[in-house]
Design goal:
Blueprint: H1 17-26, H2 49-53, H3 57-89, H4 94-143, H5 146-151, H6 154-196, H7 198-246, H8 248-253, H9 257-309, H10 315-357, E1 378-385, E2 394-401, E3 406-410, H11 417-424, E4 432-437, E5 440-441, H12 447-451, E6 454-457, H13 468-472, H14 481-491, H15 494-499, H16 517-531, E7 535-539, H17 547-560, E8 565-569, H18 573-576, E9 581-586, E10 589-594, H19 596-602, H20 605-619
Parallel strand pairs: 3-8, 3-9, 6-7, 7-8
Antiparallel strand pairs: 1-2, 1-4, 4-5, 9-10
The protein binds adenosine-5'-triphosphate and magnesium ion.
Length: 624
């Protein structure tokens, strides 16, 4: 593997070296990103279009300058036609006709080139801006605390990242530049026709502008409503689709396909109706303005023709008028379309602003200290906590877990065991009281330095689409293959890995859907093992395992937990009873506390649970 970096093979024949280098030169450069991540966000003012665009004003100004040249060259056509007719055709001067035609051709070519450059330039600029906003929203979402993701539907967050950002992209890419083009066109046309003939220009303006204004005002309010509805309905379609897809197994198992079809059909039907409504509005407005425009041309032809006959207008000017008239209507129609783009872009900005203004509920202090290497003494000091502060889940818990101790939480479902684990990892802050690690209040230490020293195996382990290796080395990406294999061996999935076609490089697909849930738990354990954390938190980490695998894990745990603090949450008493101390959580309080023997002797809830367990496992002790 001594070849140059970036090449999948080792040796290159010398005669091919120059060509390879040439190829490498042409490779797009993806320099190692310097983008970092910080939990603390600098002081930031609300997200607005102005603030977002301000740093790019130079590029935007360049775009507008190009637009100006583009529009000028575009609108030179009718003017040159008028000159050719009046100065050349009418007076019979061939030279003038030829010169002006060539000039016309030159403006067309110039216009083509400038339009090409401008489109490429603004396209690129728009994409850069989109990338910037996508990264900004994404890193903000990463910064938010768990409660945000509990309350906000994933589908809605996805909508922010897709349809809202696209609406903003439309506004930036087409909207703003088009606004410049059309506004500029309108201005030029007005100036030119009034210079030609004030009376005829006034006829145009008076005949056409009032009708257009009324139609446009109607269209604006009508389309605003229908467009808003279309956007809401598409969000419904997306949400239903997403939920149906992620629940597809349950849907199939309970034969809910027909029901789901009906539901989706209704949602899609609503979406269709909203679109039909907006199409109806457009169907009136688009052809309507066309009609007014053509009627305007007829009026100009009539009035202008009369003026030509009475020698107050030249033939060329009449031609230019008719030509400019179409150039006069196109921008008005466009501007109204743009109004829609502007509306939805503005709505998207408001939604993104709200999202970007959401503060993490578990913030990192600006002055947060780096937690030094910890021994792992954990203290919950009169901790009261509720997801909804009005309904406490944990009440006044006061508990000290010594460094190096293995502490087990047991208790009925919903008692609050996982919640304790979430407080120790500072996914939430206690409503009252403090959580301390080695005497440091978690509120005052940086989240990074805390979580780096914690290993968590949650109740529902999550695997990412990627290889087994990627998933195990998640917390330690630089680990060697041997270290990953060792972690596999410790938790006892080495046999499974050996059976797989590509070993640890075998992909596990989204959420590890190609593995059994026991295998997923083992992978999650291997991930925690490899990270070698100072404090290990296992939340029902072995609940899906058979007894033999559990025995393997327990043996491995004995090794791993040497000199480390561990919090183990377990329904199986066989796991819990190995801990130094056990806390029985009941109704958000620690009802009993002590070693296994002490608790059995005390004859309380734990002793009862133990007795039940013994009698059951006595009946059907597995052959293992
Ligand atoms: N994100 C949340 N938002 C609101 N309430 C929650 C949330 N998570 C848990 N709860 C509630 O808090 C209580 C304690 O939940 P917790 O997950 O700590 O229970 P547990 O003891 O771990 O139960 P289990 O043994 O089933 O895992 C439950 O009544 C639950 O309904
Ligand atoms: Mg739990």
């Amino acid at each position: 593997m001594g070849g140059p970096p970036g090449l999948p093979f080792a040796g290159i024949p010398p005669e091919m070296q120059p060509r390879v280098e040439k190829l490498l030169d042409r490779e797009p450069k993806h320099p190692k990103s310097t983008a970092g991540f910080s939990h603390v966000r600098g002081p930031q003012r609300p997200f607005t279009l102005g603030r977002f665009l301000r740093p790019h004003w130079l590029a935007l100004a360049a775009g507008v300058a190009m637009v100006a040249v583009e529009t000028l060259t575009q609108q030179a056509g009718p003017l040159l036609t008028q000159q050719a007719i009046d100065q050349g055709v009418v007076k019979g001067k061939t030279g003038v006709v030829v010169t002006i035609s060539l000039l016309y051709l030159a403006t067309v070519i110039l216009n083509g080139i400038v339009t090409w450059l401008r489109t490429a330039f603004t396209g690129r600029l728009g994409q850069q801006l989109m990338k910037e906003i996508r990264v900004r929203v994404f890193s903000h979402i990463q910064r938010l605390s768990l409660d945000f993701f509990t309350e906000e539907k994933a589908g809605r967050i996805m909508t922010r990242m897709t349809s809202d950002i696209e609406a903003l992209s439309d506004l930036l890419q087409d909207g703003i530049i088009n606004l410049a083009v059309q506004g500029f066109t309108l201005l030029i046309v007005m100036v030119v026709i009034f210079t030609y003939n004030v009376r005829l220009a006034l006829v145009v303006v008076l005949a056409v502008v009032p009708v257009m204004t009324v139609m446009t005002l109607w269209f604006r309010s009508a389309s605003e409503k229908t467009y808003g509805r279309v956007r809401e309905r598409i969000a419904d379609v997306m949400a239903d689709l997403q939920e149906s897809l992620s629940g597809i197994r349950i849907v199939a198992a309970y034969n809910r396909q027909r029901f789901n079809n009906v539901k989706h059909r209704n949602i899609v039907g609503d979406h269709m109706e909203a679109n039909v409504d907006s199409a109806r509005v457009a169907a009136v407005y688009g052809p309507g303005t066309d009609f007014v425009g053509s009627a305007g041309q007829a009026i100009v032809l009539f009035v202008g023709g009369w003026m030509v006959l009475h020698h107050t207008l030249t033939v060329g000017e009449l031609t230019a008028f008719v030509l400019y008239l179409s150039a006069f209507f196109a921008p008005i129609q466009q501007l109204v379309q743009l109004y829609n783009t502007y509306q939805s872009g503005q709505a998207a900005i408001v939604k993104l602003r709200d999202l970007l203004a959401t503060e993490p509920s578990v913030p990192e202090e600006t002055e947060a200290e780096e937690l030094p290497l910890i021994d792992g003494a954990i203290r919950l000091e009169h901790v009261t906590f509720g997801y909804d502060p009005a309904r406490p889940v944990l009440r006044d818990i006061d508990l000290q877990i010594a460094a190096g101790e293995t502490f087990a939480f047991v208790g009925p479902t919903g008692a609050g065991k996982s919640t304790v684990a979430k407080l120790v990892t500072r996914f939430y802050d206690p409503t009252e009281g403090r959580v301390l690690v080695d005497g440091h209040d978690l509120r005052h230490v940086s989240l990074g330095s805390l979580r780096r020293q914690l290993g968590v195996v949650p109740q529902e382990p999550f695997l990412f689409a990627g290889s087994i290796r990627d998933n195990i080395a998640f917390a330690a990406p630089d680990a060697s293959d041997d270290e990953v294999l060792e972690a596999c061996r410790v938790v006892g999935i080495d046999e499974l890995v050996a059976r797989l076609p590509d070993g640890i490089h075998t992909p596990v697909f989204e959420r590890g859907s190609s593995l059994s849930s026991g295998e997923r738990q083992l992978l999650a354990l291997a991930r925690a093992f490899l990270a070698q954390p100072r404090v290990l938190i296992l939340d029902e980490a072995t609940s899906s395992l058979d007894l033999r695998s559990e025995a393997v894990i327990e043996h491995a745990l004995d090794v791993l937990l040497e000199g480390r603090t561990a919090i183990i949450i377990a329904h199986r008493l066989s796991t819990a009873m190995r801990a130094n101390r056990i806390g029985v959580v009941l109704d958000g309080r620690i009802a009993e506390l002590g070693s296994h023997d002490e608790l059995v002797a005390a004859g309380g809830l734990y002793a009862e649970m133990y007795a039940t367990w013994i009698s059951h496992s006595g009946e059907h002790t597995p052959a293992a």
